[in-house]
Design brief:
Elements: E1 2-3, H1 9-20, E2 28-33, H2 38-46, H3 62-67, E3 71-75, H4 78-83, H5 85-89, E4 95-100, H6 108-120
Parallel strand pairs: 1-2, 2-4, 3-4
Length: about 120
């Protein structure tokens, strides 16, 4: 099972982590952390609007999840993610991975949406 959300990392920790602790289930929570309000930042950029309010500080969320008793990791490089394969294949209870992603990369559907909007105008 995987949790995905478009909320700031610290909100995901505050809301999701305490819910999974009693389950002691082999569950992987992977936070795709772009240090921003993801889609919102890209919508603003594509419309040539200021993005400052959509950018968040780079918080390492793994230590917070670890304090709740989860197995944790922070991933900044592909090699680090590959090294987690054993933990992901055979988890011992819930785990949390703070996966830092490039905030400059927009999902293709966002680019398609803006192209569609421009075509309509």
């Amino acid at each position: 099972m995987t949790s995905a959300a478009t909320v700031p990392a610290y909100e995901a920790l505050a809301h999701d982590i305490p819910l999974v602790i009693p389950l002691a289930t082999p569950l992987a929570i992977v936070l795709m952390n772009d240090c921003a309000y993801g889609a919102e930042q890209h919508y603003l950029k594509m419309r040539d609007m200021p993005v400052a309010m959509s950018v968040l500080p780079d918080i390492d969320c793994a230590p917070v999840a670890e304090a709740f008793g989860l197995q944790t990791a922070t991933v900044r490089k592909l090699e680090q993610l590959r090294a987690l394969a054993p933990m992901l294949k055979a988890p011992d209870g819930p785990s949390f991975i703070d996966c830092k992603i490039n905030p400059a990369v927009a999902a293709p559907f966002l680019l398609e949406l803006v192209a569609h909007e421009r075509h309509k105008a």
